[in-house]
Amino acid sequence: MPQLDRIIVFSQIFWLFLIFSIFYAILTHYFLPKFLKSLKIRKQVIDSNTKDVLKKTEKTLSKQGSLKKILIKDLEVTSNLLTHYFSQLIKDKKKIDTLSIDQKIGFVILNTVKFCDLKILNSIFVYPKLLRFRN
């Protein structure tokens, strides 16, 4: 059988070994360092982006916390002023004009609903028409 001839088999093994050795040397010497360098740069970019995101979220959370403190303080001041104003009106026994106060409170509630307060929107349950008519 000619495919099992010793002369042909040894030359094929020699050239196979030589070609794969050269191919392996080229890959490890030229392409592998470039590939590893690109992987290292990608990892560094991801790490720096993660650090930036963490800094920005910490900054945002601190700003939200300070804003929440300011809002709570202002709400307490407003509550104290309203309590003082109504108690003063009751003491003086004057006619209390609640219409303008009700209009202002209604305007605030309307704007809160218009500008999509998520807590309010999540508290509204919407059911499909088909479920309403089933018994």
TrEMBL record:
<feature type="transmembrane region" description="Helical">
    <location>
        <begin position="12"/>
        <end position="32"/>
    </location>
</feature>
<keyword id="KW-0496">Mitochondrion</keyword>
<protein>
    <submittedName>
        <fullName>ATP synthase F0 subunit 8</fullName>
    </submittedName>
</protein>
<dbReference type="InterPro" id="IPR003319">
    <property type="entry name" value="YMF19-like_N"/>
</dbReference>
<keyword id="KW-1133">Transmembrane helix</keyword>
<feature type="domain" description="ATP synthase YMF19-like N-terminal">
    <location>
        <begin position="2"/>
        <end position="70"/>
    </location>
</feature>
<dbReference type="Pfam" id="PF02326">
    <property type="entry name" value="YMF19"/>
</dbReference>
<dbReference type="GO" id="GO:0006754">
    <property type="term" value="P:ATP biosynthetic process"/>
</dbReference>
<keyword id="KW-0472">Membrane</keyword>
<dbReference type="GO" id="GO:0031966">
    <property type="term" value="C:mitochondrial membrane"/>
</dbReference>
<keyword id="KW-0812">Transmembrane</keyword>
<keyword id="KW-0066">ATP synthesis</keyword>
